[in-house]
């Protein structure tokens, strides 16, 4: 989708059309989630700090956004995608891979299908979508970006190498600023340079990951479109508006995140065995987006859990025993080591009938809370000791275990 959040706002408010609009957090640590094309002419981009966006474009209209509305639009868009193929792999609320293998006889040539898909999305939502068509995933993604705004670009099998050759190495998935600098320092500026590089040199620099990068640079991408798949982990985090060193506030926020993660686990019918605590220091240690160091601590439970109280208890213990010793700007809670949920979650280490009964009561309470959330929305019922979990900006991410746009 083209500038998804901003385009939805411009569609719904005629006064915003033709004007520079940004959606996201507008606080001192806010982040741009989406920028209209009018704003992009000033250099405003998604993931840019909001204060920088305002500096580049003083006339920028900043909107906090409406996650529920964007979630509804996303579901309508994905329903259209499903009209063209059952194999749809969502990357975010506004982006997906669609596998058209074997559909030519039924639906026609790929470019014709792409044109009809764009027309259907416009008809259904009055929004623009750009389409990239290619024989492999990475090339299709690059082509869709090249087709923006409101366009279609097909890269046929025989054109892949020529299409990729002049592009900078940073266009490959996973190549960040550090890897790009190392590649450029060794004379690899373009994908053609990387594709032709000596495999031994690449392996010495980056190991097996480097060899994988070189294969992608040659257009060799064996990944299939995965319409479904098990999540490896679940997590929630937030960036505070001001630096926080109050342990009580951190503990309260941890409980908020733990309950959110647990609800998503239960919705997906899974439990996690490993609890992870994450925080980012408030003091900048180096230049760039990674200048604020990120730390994690984790612990493995005897038994997997989907109970927010248990997750919060372990995360708070990590906070007390090995947590930050100075103010933080971000804190988060995650769970990994996923297992399918079975029947009632009774501890093997329960101390008699009393603790087992307590586990049953917590499970019943969780079910009741889930029913209230499903009926009345997120945040209907919260614990008195929960903390406020402000976010620096809206996310386009599709979170496992919740409907798109469910986040407050």
- Kindly name the structural category: alpha+beta
Name the strands of the widest sheet in spatial order: 8-11-9-10
Which superfamily, in CATH terms, is the homologous superfamily of the domain at 233-376? Answer: DNA polymerase, Y-family, little finger domain
Q: How many distinct helices?
A: 15
Radius of gyration: 23 Å
The number of strands is 11
| Poorly predicted parts | 346-350
Walk me through the structure.
By secondary structure, this protein is an alpha+beta fold. Among the domains are: 4-65, 3-Layer(aba) Sandwich (MutS, DNA mismatch repair protein, domain I); 162-217, DNA polymerase, domain 1 (Orthogonal Bundle), CATH 1.10.150.20; 233-376, 2-Layer Sandwich (Dna Ligase, domain 1). The chain is 41% helix and 18% strand. Strands 8-11-9-10 form a four-stranded antiparallel sheet, with helices on one face. Strand 1 (21-24) and strand 2 (32-35) form a beta hairpin. The longest helix is centred in the C-terminal third of the chain and has 25 residues, at 352-376. The model is unreliable at 346-350 (pLDDT under 50).
